[in-house]
Amino acid sequence: MTKIASNLQIDSARLWGTIHETAKFGATPKGGVRRLTLGPEDKQVRDWFRDACEAAGLEVHVDTLGSMFGLRKGRDMSKPPVGLGSHLDTQPTGGKYDGVLGTLAALEVVRTLNDAGIETETPICIVNWTNEEGSRFAPATMASAAYAGDYTTDDILARRDAAGVSVGEALDGIGYRGSEAVGARRLGAFVELHIEQGPLLEAENKTIGVVDRGQGIVWYDGKITGFESHAGTTPMPLRRDALAAMSEFVLAVERITRAHGPNAVGTVGEAVIATPSRNVIPGEVAFTVDIRSPNAATLDAIDRDLRSATAEIAARRKVEMALAPIWRKEPTVFNAKLVDAVETATRALGYSHRRITSGAGHDACNLANVVPAAMIFVPCKDGVSHNELEDATQADCTAGANALMHTVLALAGVAS
Ligand code: GLV
Ligand code: MN
Ligand code: MN
């Protein structure tokens, strides 16, 4: 690396400005962001991102699933680009940093290289992956998973949201069904900066998390069918209450994941009574379950325990209970050489750091199946994420972006 490159720092105020400028697309009264995948606010931020990429001299390509790639040429265009980026969609009650930091830091890296007149040996490519969050369309990280070959494009295009709108229709609705085949834009490596979304870095007063693993994730869809009847006239022993069964199931998820702890977590994030009414005993409840662990065997063991708990509750309460796995992402082991590259860049910048496992799913976990991939974490306040109160400091975001830039420079090389 040349001297100028090794001293290079991103423009902290400019990065911070873009994070707050884009937070207006879907801003919520509580200071968070609601920018559901492929909705109108997602279109707004995508248009902003495309304009910013073009203004930075990038060639923007969009694939059939709407993932956006901004290519910065390198000296040797025969080499596959080093990818960097994340996502711009958010949870329904999301924050300003989840995904946004990694995507806008990637843009900031390009702007900094442009200002410094640095040409890399290998091209670099900044990426905004479609639907990382998975809250409007399941599964999460669907576009990067299709990029990595886990799903066909047609399968993902046909997935529907709760209102029955397909991914394909939603893409057409905002004009982001691109022409490039999914997976065609090959990358040589991928590096994603992200807030930690957990409490460890803050608790240990560390600036950078060098991510070497990612938890495995299993998602289930479930349904409980009991029997609707009159709230005033149906004696307690005769009820087949779907919500009461649901309540037992929620507690079973908690008990089972705790029993497989400390490195397992389980969440019922949605539970919806089909036709709620104050004086009707709930007859049908639909629900979702999210189970995570860094160990595949633990996911299997939790699956077995969940099934037997489900059968027991259903039999005792005389309700039907269906529990179907709809997504399984195996635990990720990030590429050792790239993890070392992140650690080396972090050390050279003088930031405190530790190795860390990602509790959240990320597009980089899918990329890791097809190219060397790594992640960089920075702390977030109280470890809170997937919440409008999500917060991170400018200094930590800046440090993360610097670590990202120097990792990418080490991978892409500086043309002499
Ligand atoms: C994505 O945000 C996930 O980890 O669920
Ligand atoms: Mn994210
Ligand atoms: Mn998220």
Description:
With 416 residues, this protein is of the alpha/beta class. Helices cover 36% and strands 22% of the residues. Strands 1, 2, 3, 4, 5, 6, 13, 14 and 15 form a nine-stranded mixed beta sheet that branches. It has a four-stranded antiparallel beta sheet with strand order 9-11-7-12, with helices on one face. A two-stranded antiparallel ribbon has the order 8-10. 50% of the residues are buried. Bound molecules: glyoxylic acid (GLV) and manganese (II) ion (2 copies). One manganese (II) ion binds next to loops.
Instruction: Tell me the overall shape.
Output: elongated
Bound small molecules, by name, code or SMILES, are: glyoxylic acid, manganese (II) ion
Question: Helices and strands, in N-to-C order?
Answer: HHHEEEHEHHHEHEEEHEEEHEEHEHEH
Q: Supply the helix-strand structural class.
A: alpha/beta
Number of helices: 13
The first-to-last residue Cα distance is 9 Å
The parts where pLDDT drops under 50 for at least 5 residues are none
Beta-strand percentage? Answer: 15-25%
